Amino acid sequence: MSTITAGALAAMPAYAPATSSPAPTAFAPAPSAPFATSHPVIAGTESVSPPVLSPPAPAATAPAAATTRTEVADGSRKSDAAGPRLLPPTAAPAITAPLAASPAPAILSVTTTQAVPNGLPSLDPPTPQEITAFLEQQQPAAADSAGVATSESGEIATTATPRTNASRQIEPTTTSRAAAQTELDEDLATLGTLTGEKIDLRAREMIAAGYDLARRGAYYAARLQFVGVLRMIAEAKDDRHGAVRRAAALAEGLQALDEAEDFLTIPADADANQEAAVLLRSHKTAVGREGDAAGLPPAQLADRYYRYAQRQLASAVAGEPAGSMALHALGKLTTEQHTAAETDFPLALRRAASYQQAALLARDDNYLAAHELGVLMAETGHYLESADLLRKVASEQPNPVVLRNLARVERSLGRSQAAQLAEQEAARLAVLTPDPRVAWMPPGQFAAQSGTGQSPNFAGSAPPMQTPYGTPQVARGPAAQPAGGLPPNMRFMR
Length: 494
What we know:
It is a single chain. Among the domains are: about 200-365, no CATH class; about 365-440 and about 460-494, Alpha Horseshoe (Serine Threonine Protein Phosphatase 5, Tetratricopeptide repeat). The protein is about 45% helix and about 5% strand. It has 15 helices and 4 strands. The chain has helices at about 5-10, 130-140, 175-190, 195-215, 220-240, 245-265, 270-280, 300-315, 320-340, 345-360, 365-380, 385-395, 400-410, 415-430, 445-450, and strands at about 70, 75-80, 150-155, 165-170. The chain has a two-stranded antiparallel ribbon. A hairpin with a 5-residue loop joins strand 1 and strand 2 (about 75-80). The protein is extended, with a radius of gyration of 49 Å.
């Protein structure tokens, strides 16, 4: 590859255009024209006399004759074949700088390419009809069925103002047809679901039906009614919040109660630790899969399962009076069922206490659940805890039944004076208001009275306790334990 030296470069001849090329003559303005510049002149902005337009050179081909437009009074334009007609000068100040250097863009200016004899474009102001047509071309496509309205703000894109500089503001409309149709579809979809008032009414009916089934000895059918109330409330809450949390908590709580009893029924001649390890591997409760659960004895594992069940059941119906009453009813049903069968009574007490504790966790103003839990504590030997809880219930909701049970607990603790005061207060309240409650009774006694036509016996005089529903109209429990149950000094009224 050869190189070019500085001397050779200096010896090269300078480039010059060919002399034989003809000079352009088409549309060349005369040298003497005062406004022969590259930019057009807007009509009506010069104070000098109109310029003299030079005719085209003889050698050039004459451009096609074009018609000019003149504006009439009504705003329209008509053709003028006689030639271009310039507007008269006005008193506006003369333009001293080229139009291209003006910082302000030309708004609503329309550049035409219509040819005239002197080769300059026609720059007459646009008519209102042209402005309207121009704006219609610049408007975006009509909004679709989604109901979105567009509004233009800022400058309109022209040759002087690029389209990228034009700002657009999109605002959703609240009266769109699609949005209204969506809301209508949602309303129609929710017509098949129960409202909160209907759920509460339905829950009361199911709880009353469950108590009636329990009085007749249909314990499993009664349990289905009470669990159905819990599931109905949990599913309604999940449907409102769009997440399956409460229904899952309900299922986990019930499952934890069933699996907790496995640790309390291990045979005495079996290896408790080995059996517990096998049970942990087969269980589905979350607390059983924790790292330290493998080294705990069966009794502590059962306690952990029961506490987990209480929390899950309470969270499934948290804050709902109907849910709290359904949990209380399940506890009462468990106590009555195993008391009537006279089998596995300590195991039934654990499950019943878990139901009552869950009812209190769901609603701390459920005094029926608090009273029943206090009785269960006393029946399992927790006298101090029972006395504290029963005393609190008696102070919030004075009731002869609660005061009599408190007197028994105080006497078991050796507090004779406190027991006597509780009995006196119970006797005073019993005279004031009769008790409209329905008493629990064993299935045999109910069948005997039904066969003889006798009316069931009601409990002694006592004012009704207040619950989240107000005065309860359902059974609270047996007036006394059946024969063969607890000792006479430990038989509490419910």
